[in-house]
Amino acid sequence: MSIRLLDRQGRQGGFLRDVEESAAFPKGFYAKYGKRALDVLSVTLGLIALSPVFALVACCIKLTSRGPVLYRQVRLGKDGRQFQILKFRSMVDASENGLGITVSGDRRVTVVGRFLRRYKIDELPQLWNVLHGDMSLVGPRPELPIYVADYTPEQRLVLSARPGITDPASLAYRHEEEILAGQADPEQFYRTKILPDKLARNRAYLEKITLQNDFRIIVKTISSSFVLAEKTGARRAL
Description:
The protein has helices at 10-13, 29-49, 51-64, 111-118, 126-132, 145-148, 168-172, 176-181, 186-206, 211-226, 234-237; strands spanning 2-6, 16-20, 70-76, 82-88, 136-138, 164-166. The protein is of the alpha+beta class. Helix 2 (29-49) packs across helix 5.
């Protein structure tokens, strides 16, 4: 399988290189066919059921801050292909700082945005990404090209699957922004500590993709968004 990744030189020259990797993850019937079928069915029903929520959130964003309702950002998905991930805009418009992370207390986050991010409502537009085929409900979270360019050959194997709205690493780092806020250099801490641990957790997930496991992750994600859970063991792991 050919995985296309941004070369380090590509950050300057803008070109891609092909990296040959053989994904060693098992591919059962669910992983090959059932997972995508579940995505399409669930997302179609979800978009219909959540349409009033989408409309309400869109109105709140437009009435409280200038700028578009949706925020788009380039991420790398399956086989290293670029796509635009969708989110409800939670920051003031044109507030890019060149970094791929956000820390707790970031002044760019709007009042409505804090609420959306607290309950992960800002991620709901990614249901469209799932329906389009760029993402899955469960799978490794897609990263920015600048981070993927530094992956080791072993870490690149996470690109053998569609990225997801949620994954085991998202659950472990439910309070990532608070963890980063306590670091002297949040960007460096993310690159050297958090991201490698996330990739290791997602590789473990890919080694055993099952309907039961995906259902458990989805239920935990929903429940953790509305329950003031204890900060996870990720902090202790670091």
